[in-house]
Write a structure and sequence with these properties.
The complex is a heterodimer of chains A (177) and B (172). By secondary structure, chain A is mostly helical. Chain A has helices at residues 4-12, 19-60, 69-76, 79-88, 92-108, 113-128, 133-150, 155-162. The two termini of chain A are 27 Å apart. With 172 residues, chain B is mainly alpha-helical. In chain B, helix 3 (29-57) runs antiparallel to helix 4, helix 3 (29-57) crosses helix 6 (114-131) and helix 4 packs across helix 7. Classes of the chains: A mainly alpha (177), B mainly alpha (172).
């Protein structure tokens, strides 16, 4: 599993970490308690996510036939991947593990992109209701990366381009603990 | 610590124990940075004092291959950097993946003896303890011990290439 952290560790190999490498890691390490609290809060919600997502989808989009319990469960099953990407502060995980898969699946099954993206937005709403502002800030970039990936013209594109993402090449912009 | 956690949590949430361990680790990061910087600053003195003793212990070592002591000093410097980095990230797995297992094969292939390596790590330990603060030493020692344990687990070579050992102490 390749991450920016494993890259630093392997590149250093037989020399001491540079001050820049240590500063990058220290900043990330300081956000770990918040990332772990966020993961725990999401884990507590995990057993009911499928049910709550479906209820919300039926409420917001009563005419859409795509939204069934198995579909809602599949959407909820995305969450552990997003949580792992958030823990690693590695947005590439979202692209490698979810976006490519979704793009192929939507094409092969002729699923409407907007309806899938709306279901993920509902999943995001359901989860965010249970998180504090700080917890939300640390997971939100990963939901946005997924949504931008599968629905490039959706509202997240504007949000993502208007602020620097809290991951990839820059340190996370989250409250430190 | 965190690097290993990320590998374990690919398809599950972190456990309460793992969360507590990471929180404990994060609280020690400033001390780990200070310890790394201390060791880095003291490295030349440690190597100098260590090899003054090591060369007396193995007076014929340099006759077995060109630049034998220079290479040994270089390797000890690398070991100290690896040890300090492992201490900073709080992991020993990465040491074995990137260094110790591979380097142990090299030591076997050039016919080092287990005693020669035990003396190496004992002297590193002794002079590290002398040249850095007790707090920094306490943080680094478990990682040095790990490297020593792995590295010293080699068989006696059929034809040792370290020369006579003069029994002047400094064994683990």
């Amino acid at each position: 599993m390749k991450t920016w952290l494993s890259d630093i560790i392997h590149q250093a190999n037989e020399r001491y970490f540079t001050p820049e490498e240590m500063a990058r890691m220290q900043e990330y390490f300081s956000t770990m308690p918040l990332r772990l609290q966020t993961a725990s809060a999401i884990e507590r919600a995990d057993p009911v996510l499928g049910r709550e997502v479906l209820a919300e989808l039926k409420k917001q989009y009563p005419d859409r036939q795509l939204y069934s319990r198995p579909f809602a469960n599949d959407i909820a099953a995305l969450v552990p991947v997003l949580v792992h990407a958030m823990l690693a502060d590695e947005v590439q995980f979202v692209r490698r593990r979810l976006v490519d898969h979704f793009q192929a699946m939507m094409t092969n099954l002729e699923m409407p992109m907007t309806e899938v993206a709306d279901a993920i937005r509902v999943l995001r709403e359901v989860i965010f209701r249970r998180l504090s502002a700080a917890q939300t800030s640390v997971i939100e970039p990963f939901f946005n990366a997924l949504l931008v990936g599968i629905d490039p013209n959706g509202p997240e594109k504007l949000a993502a381009s208007s602020s620097e993402p809290a991951h990839e090449d820059s340190p996370p912009e989250v409250a430190t603990v | 610590m965190i690097h290993t956690l990320l590998r374990k949590c690919i398809d599950r949430y972190p456990t309460k124990t793992e969360i507590s361990q990471v929180e404990e680790y994060v609280a020690t990061v400033p001390k780990r940075i200070a310890a790394l910087q201390e060791l880095k600053a003291a490295q030349d003195k440690i190597i100098q004092d260590m090899f003054a003793e090591y060369q007396k212990l193995y007076p014929k070592f340099h006759t077995f291959r060109p630049y034998a002591w220079a290479k040994a000093m270089r390797d000890v410097g690398m070991t100290m950097a690896l040890c300090a980095n492992a201490m900073f990230i709080g992991e020993t797995d990465i040491l074995d993946e990137t260094w110790t297992i591979w380097f142990r094969s090299i030591m076997k292939s050039v016919h080092m003896t287990p005693q020669f390596l035990r003396d190496n790590y004992a002297l590193m330990d002794k002079h590290m303890r002398r040249h850095i603060s007790p707090e920094a030493y306490g943080l680094i020692k478990p990682y040095l011990d790990h490297i020593a344990d792995v590295m010293c687990a080699i068989p006696e070579p059929i034809r040792p290439e370290v020369g006579e050992r003069r029994p002047v102490g400094a064994t683990r």
